[in-house]
């Protein structure tokens, strides 16, 4: 009886250790994570909007993207790294081993650095706009089209639901 109790206790302890190791592995940084950024994409004039895009993915799919649209060059950050630094914790959470099974990308948008309005983005749309470097979001025309067709209506909904935050 004592021997079977010790075996059962040993098996339980082994199972707990294996579960903890599995959870730690799933929450660790994926070995195939990638990322890129396009900083200060503009139309070339002082009055044109400036876009800042940061994207991270795991495997072949983007899992999180952050796009900021400053209404003109004067509102753009002087230190362009502020854009990435403002969302590092969210990016760290979305480049884990377990993110390779996600069916959606988290799109964070803002009208200034630090503002993050979360919008779920299906995998097909995410890949189309934010796939690995060379994606459509790399030039001003595409950034503006994406903002006008996809983001601006969601920001308007956010402003209606959260008055006083815009």
Outline of this structure?
With 166 residues, the protein is of the alpha+beta class. It has helices at 2-27, 81-85, 88-93, 123-130, 140-161; strands at residues 33-42, 50-58, 61-70, 104-110, 117-122.
Walkthrough of the structure:
- This protein is of the alpha+beta class and 166 residues long.
- It folds into two domains: 1-30; 33-161, no CATH class.
- It is 40% helix and 25% strand.
- It has helices at residues 2-27, 81-85, 88-93, 123-130, 140-161; strands at residues 33-42, 50-58, 61-70, 104-110, 117-122.
- A hairpin with a 7-residue loop joins strand 1 (33-42) and strand 2 (50-58).
- 26% of the residues are buried.
- The mean pLDDT is 82.
Topology:
Elements: H1 2-27, E1 33-42, E2 50-58, E3 61-70, H2 81-85, H3 88-93, E4 104-110, E5 117-122, H4 123-130, H5 140-161
Parallel strand pairs: 3-4
Antiparallel strand pairs: 1-2, 2-3, 4-5
Estimated share of beta-strand residues: 25-35%
Question: How far apart, in Å, are the first and last alpha carbons?
Answer: 68 Å
Give unreliable regions as ranges. none
Biggest sheet record: 5 strands, mixed
Give the averaged pLDDT, no decimals.
Answer: 82
What count of structural domains?
2
Spatial sequence of strands, sheet with the most strands: 1-2-3-4-5
Helix fraction by DSSP (H/I, runs of at least 4): 40-55%
Number of strands: 5
The count of helical stretches stands at 5
Strand and helix order: HEEEHHEEHH
Structural class: alpha+beta
Please give the radius of gyration in angstroms: 21 Å
* Shape summary: elongated
């Amino acid at each position: 009886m004592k021997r079977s109790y010790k075996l059962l206790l040993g098996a339980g302890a082994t199972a707990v250790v294996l579960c903890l190791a599995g959870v730690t592995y799933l929450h660790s940084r994926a070995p195939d994570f990638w990322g890129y950024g396009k900083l200060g994409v503009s139309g070339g004039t002082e009055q044109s909007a400036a876009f800042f895009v940061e994207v991270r993915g795991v495997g072949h799919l983007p899992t999180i993207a952050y796009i900021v649209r400053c209404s003109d060059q004067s509102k753009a950050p002087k230190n362009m790294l502020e854009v990435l630094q403002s969302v590092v914790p969210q990016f760290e959470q979305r480049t884990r081993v377990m993110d390779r099974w996600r069916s959606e990308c988290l799109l964070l948008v803002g009208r200034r650095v630090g503002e993050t309005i979360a919008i779920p983005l299906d995998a097909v749309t995410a890949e189309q706009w934010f796939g690995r470097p060379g994606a459509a979001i790399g030039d001003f025309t595409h950034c503006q089209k994406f903002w006008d067709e996809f983001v601006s209506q969601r920001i308007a909904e956010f402003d209606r639901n959260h008055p006083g935050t815009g």
